[in-house]
Structures are given as C-alpha cells and as structure tokens.
Amino acid sequence: MKKIRLAAGLGFYGDNWEPIRAAIEFGEVNYVCSDHLAELTLAILRKDQARDPAAGFTRDLVPMLSALWPMAQQAGVKFVLNAGGLNPGGARDALLAAFKAKGWTARIAVVTGDALLDHIDDLRAQGQDLAHLDTAAPIDEVHERLVFANAYLGAAPIVEALASGADIVLTGRVADAALFLAPLIHEFGWSLQPGDAEGWSRLAQGLCVGHLLECSGQGAGGNFGSAGAWQKVPDLTHIGYPIAEVFENGSAIITKAPGTGGRINFHTVRQQLLYEVHNPQRYLSPDVVLDMSTIQLDELGGNRVRLRGASGSAPPATLKLVAGYENGWMGSAVLGFCWPDAMAKARAVVASIKTQMDEKRMRHEELHVEFLGHDSFLGPHADSTREAELNEVWLRMAVRASDKRVADAFPRLFPWMALSGPPFMGGFHGIQPASQLLGLWPSQVARELIEPLVKVELSEVQP
What we know:
By secondary structure, this protein is α+β, with helices and mostly antiparallel strands. Helices cover 29% and strands 25% of the residues. A hairpin with a 5-residue loop joins strand 10 (296-299) and strand 11 (305-308). It comes from Roseateles toxinivorans.
C-alpha cells in the first residue's frame, strides 16, 4: 500500500526550525508542513505591514528555508507553509530573491484569496452579516476600525498548487490541518467531495493527522502532562517534531526522527488529539467534519503510535473568518518589591497609581493589575493565604485607552516611587511608548462567495 511521510514544521511564528533538519536528514519524509500563524499572528503581521507595506509575512520564512532548502531539495522534500500571512505575494518575492542570490532553483506557488478586507461591503450586500461568532454583536461596532479580515481556506488550492508542480507552497490564512491534508489528497488522489462514508472517513483521518502534527513539539511530548509527567520526557532540548507515516486508506503511524528527544506514546498523542477541541464529535474544518469519538490509538512501542478509525462527514457551508480592528492603546509598567511585606508594598503602589489616575482624569477603558509570581497565571484562584511569605513580587499594570496620550502618560506615574514609595523597590523596566492594540473579530462567511476569489500562481527561480 502506498504511503507518504509528513513532517511537522513550525507550530507558530518564531518556533524552532532545527528539529525540521533532523526530520529531513533522518526521518525519510516527503513533505514538511509548517504552521506559522497562531490565532494572534495576523495582528502582529498587520503592525509590521503598517510600518512597511512590503512586509506582512512571517520573517522567519527566508532564514528557515535558506537553512533547509539545499538538503530538502536533495532529498526531494517539498514544503507547504502558511508563512505568507497577510502578504503571500511578498513572501514569494522575498524567497525568490534569496534563492536567486544563492543560485538555487525552486518552483514556488502562492495561494491567495483569503484576504477579505476589501470585500467586506460586497459580502454584506450579499447577505453576510459577519456578526461576532461568540457574542452575535453586529460588525458595525468595528467596521470602520477594521485593518484585516481573512477567511480560513481549506486544502483545495494547496492541492492545485502541488498539482502544478510546486516544490514550495506559500499560503495566507488556511485551516492549520489543511496544510497536512492537502499533500495526502494530492498523493493519494482522494476526492474532496466523496460520495460515500469511506471517502469522508479518509479525509477525516487526514485531517486528524494534521491536527496531531500542527503544533510541532507539542505533539511529541512538549508541553506535556501535569506535575511530574513532563519531567519524564527525555531531552526536550533536542526534541524531534512528530512525523506521520500515512497510508492510502488514511490510517497512520505517528513517530519522530530517530535519535531525537521527546516522546511519542499513547499519552502524548492523546493529549495533542484533544488540544483546542470543543466538541470531539464535530471538529469542524473547511474540508470535512471530524468525529474523534471513533478513533483508536494503538501504542506500538519505539516512539510509534497507530492512528485509525476516524469518522467524517461533509463540511459546513461556511468558512471561519477572523478580522482585526483597532482597539485603542496600551501603556504598561513593571516594577519589583522585596521581602518583607513584598505583596503589601505592591498593593500600596496599585492604590497610589489608581489615585493618581483619578486625580489626573486619565480616562481609560480597562485597567489590568497582576502580581507576577503570585496570580499572573491563576488570577482570582491564587492562594492569597501565603502572600506574606513571598520573597519578592513583581507588579505589572497595564491600561487600555482610546486616547494614545493617556497610554503614553501611564508609565510616567511610576518612576517617582523609587525614592518616594515603599522601600526595597527595583527593576523598573523604564518608560516605554504606548503600543497600539488590535482586537480580534471571529465570524463566518458563506464559502460559495469566497471560493471564486481564490487563486494559485506558480513562479520558478533559476540560477
């Protein structure tokens, strides 16, 4: 039976690409599928693009492929990456220029059509309300402040790009698992519109493979378990990202490159399987609805787990859409306090800052207070009975204001505390300029209105 080996690439913008090298050298892989776009990454890229219109793609793309392409090309390994972000064409141009300067050859395809900011009015005129997915609030609340809007595309345009002969496929916003599903559809000839349950189940298996690999090291023992469990995962410093050996019927074996750290077993795979899942019987994607309740995981030993039994059904008629909008400005400050009474000192400064803000009439929408080392993770669930025992406390305060002047002025309320506040204060991080905040607006849009906008373009670089 024919089989294809997929390697996990990055799990987010800024992730470590060294484990990909091990997968190419020792993992006998055919594809590297790399997810550069976490939920908030488009907001980061929008800020880059505001400073430089030619930006908007992930800046790790060129150095990553510059390091990996020679060995990948020699091994016949192809890349599928959503590193195009808000500017897939710009990502392609940067990569073409870098490859040409080195005298390398490659066929690079770009998938576009997910960017919908310029189509919002047309979509609304066609009956799309684009209401907030969680609150049902109308998009009118943020319409004038929108700075990007992107639909989550599926596997189809990536399949088209691979069929055109691309060695490297660059996309913008696509469903994470579609990066992995597309090569399977291309290689095995699976239909995206199967006429039977078996066909949908194959797609569901492929989607599940993508779900298990999309978070890089998290699928191989990174970020694993509760107290004590993570300490038993060997050599996280040299972790091997997961690899899926997928068969034509959709079954797969999850493993990693030999000689690498991390662990692939029933427990690490199961944890990743349930990551970011609301309803395991209806895991939605643009290509198939996955039912995880029928999945079987069989531990085979030697860092190998078999995946089988996923069920699938037709995808929804809508695609997820995420938009970003201007949401004011943030000013912040951090400073530390030493024992004795570290927490009491920090709380006294909070009270002083609030008084100053009231006296200066600093209008704001939100004020955030956290005590690093005490409640920055646990919030109201932190154990307050041990506050007096803390050796040190770091106070972080942040304000959100529609007026940039308020956000700029906020950190200037703190420095005088060094000589006129509670004793044993230190570590003030300095006065930083206000930073613009972007809010996220999740929604959905009819796929029939988006699919005609999607295009695939192939470029070739020669020495």
